[in-house]
Amino acid sequence: MGSPIVDLAGVAKTFESRAGATEALRAVSLSVDAGEFVSVIGPSGCGKSSLLRIVGDLVEPSAGVVRVKGKSARQARLDRDYGIVFQTPVLYDWRTVLENVQLPLELAGRPRAEREQRPRTLLRLVGLDEFAGHYPWQLSGGMQQRVAIARALALNPSILLMDEPFGALDEMTRERLNQELLQVCAETAATVLFVTHSIAEAVFLSTRIVVMSPRPGGIERVVTVALPRPRVDATRADPRFFELVTTVRQSLREDPGLAGDRAGLRGR
Amino acid sequence: MGYVRDYAPAALVLVMGLVLWEAVVFAFSIEFYLLPAPHVIVQSLRETYPVLVEAGLYTFTEAVLGWALGCGGGILAAMIASRSPAFARVVLPYAVASASVPIIALAPLAIVWFGVEQGSKIAIVVLMTFFPTFVSTLRGLLSVTPQSLELMRSYAATERQLFLKIRLPHSLPMMFTALRACATLAMIGAVVSEFFGGPVKSLGVYIKSTASLFQTRQAWSAILVACALGLLFYFAVALIERLAMPWHFERGEH
Amino acid sequence: MVVAIAVVWEGGKALFALPSYQLPHLHEIAADFLREGAGGERWLWIMAQNASYTALESLIGFALGGVTGLVLAIGFAHSRWLERGLLPYVVASQTVPILAIAPMVVVWLGTSWFSKAVIAAYLTFFPVTVNMSRGLRAVDPDALAMMRALAASSRQILFKLRFPAALPYLFTALRISATASVIGAIVGELPVGSRFGMGVVIINAAQYYNWRPANLWAAILVSAVIGIVFYHAVAAVERRVVSWSRTAPVV
Ligand SMILES: Nc1ncnc2c1ncn2[C@@H]1O[C@H](COP(=O)(O)OP(=O)(O)OP(=O)(O)O)[C@@H](O)[C@H]1O
Ligand SMILES: [Mg+2]
Prior knowledge:
Chain B is mainly alpha-helical. Chain B is built from ten helices and no strands. Chain B has helices at residues 2-27, 38-81, 85-97, 107-114, 118-142, 146-154, 159-195, 203-212, 216-244, 246-250. Magnesium ion is lined by residues 48-49, 163 of chain A.
């Protein structure tokens, strides 16, 4: 599959602050091919968000090389190759749902016809076309997050960066949105870098899972998820699904931060 | 139904207050120069309104011009200061502390600098309204969340786009809170500046001189005019606020 | 800061060639404090007397208005009907130039310190009432539910929960009121007949401005200092009392 879309080589990050230096990442190397869905999982504070921010050129790495589509991360950002979704939706009160999705198109100076059409298509894709005229605060948390996803897709980005996008949602909504997200990705052919705390979510969504170790953050292990696609509800009942969950969990063994998640899995 | 429940007590208090006022003045036969009954004030208002309208407009003009210049200057200064958050954080504490200075005491100096006519009153109103507007607007412009800034960065938004599409609309609620408060402040500033000295045809001088001559009913009707103009100003700004931020009011928080 | 002001002041004076009539030298203002007044006393002493008179008026008014505002706010928190009946007027009166009635208050209560204190109280109690009742209502619903679950009496809820939660709001109002009460006292001293206080000094100095411009500047400087000291005294108390507050409410 040609050259990788995202290519990290020896990336390190040290934050300097008054309290002293924090080494967040050390020697991270990773290649992501087009169309892949790569999840990043690891204990809290191991540098997952920092890694995502470095790929998106929101922070500079202290060392190492980041290439995105063969360009520097900065050039990729200026070319608007990214779509970003955070844990909170970050929607704007003064814009309707439709106008929030239009924002990236306005910023990129796209022609009027596209600014009218594209957001409507995207809202239909995330099942919110009826709510185009609503204000964000009139929507539930899950709906707001779907708006954020639609907005991230507005410029047809080749790379979708998602930092715990469903972290604040309940289990049921989360599973439904997982399903929707896979559909959306299939239709837009986006490559996804996805941070999560849920092992099950990571296994269900990904083609590969990057398990990170803490302090300083580094890649502990990369688990390839060879489950058949498209993933459906039955996938979660597949014995191989459980095997993969166990594999990932074992890679995370020493981590106390995921204890809650284990309890959640037992119930299912 | 909700309307009745919300406003009935207030209306009741108004009616009761007026009745009580009339009754007290009548029952204790209070001299009119001490406290004129409401109907006497209304009567006096009818007799003297040409004078009052002229004085009212004179003072109102000062308030509105001073407000426009002071608030406009405050907003502009905040916009400039917001370009450098580091600079903004240095000046902000001083601007906040300026609330501790009784600016109105500068009124006699303003007369020396800008003359006894409208200029000096406008100058005082400008000073009084500049800082609150500056502080609120600046806080609004700077309180955009870090995530919002990252989002804009990821879209390679220009500084100009960030300002026009995010910072400015984000700051509107705080800006308008200041603009409303300053409308009241402006009217107070104009009237009270005139207490320190001004032309006879101004509302402040009229109130002060009639009060000192115990022409109480004239004084009260002038105060009533000042109140009415103050309220008018306030609600005019509140109306502009509603038009400027429809999203803010659909929520039904105000 | 002080040096910066002095430099700008004298620099501006030199740059625009402003005569002392428009902008006196700083040393001229300082010298004014040492000049002897009509009664043979130094102006430093005259200013100090009048300043403490005004400060006392404001302080009494501040206390009076603060207590009134608190009582009203607690009343509002207790009775929805009281609140619906009176709060609109408390709020509306904020939009009204209340200082305009200062001359009338002096007509009623005479030119003694008392009328000034009443005006200062009047200016103080509005912000306190409005902010305090907002603060008393801004209690975390979960915390309230917990107190109910513990079968706390409404009195206990008021003193153990609502009141502490409202303190940051109260102090925001008190800071505003501190300066407002000084303004109220000074404005109360303006009407004819008053004999003491910074308002009187300012009016007199304004009349003799052509002869002694520095006198008015000195008087205004002293008035400003009263306001600033008052404000920062309240702010200092605030920092001690509500140091636990994470978010200062913006009003
Ligand atoms: N802007 C910053 N300044 C200083 N230190 C930072 C900054 N951002 C992150 N760090 C530090 O870098 C480390 C990694 O942070 P990061 O946010 O990437 O972790 P994370 O894996 O996303 O954690 P979580 O799962 O809790 O979101 C932490 O120790 C954090 O304290
Ligand atoms: Mg994170």
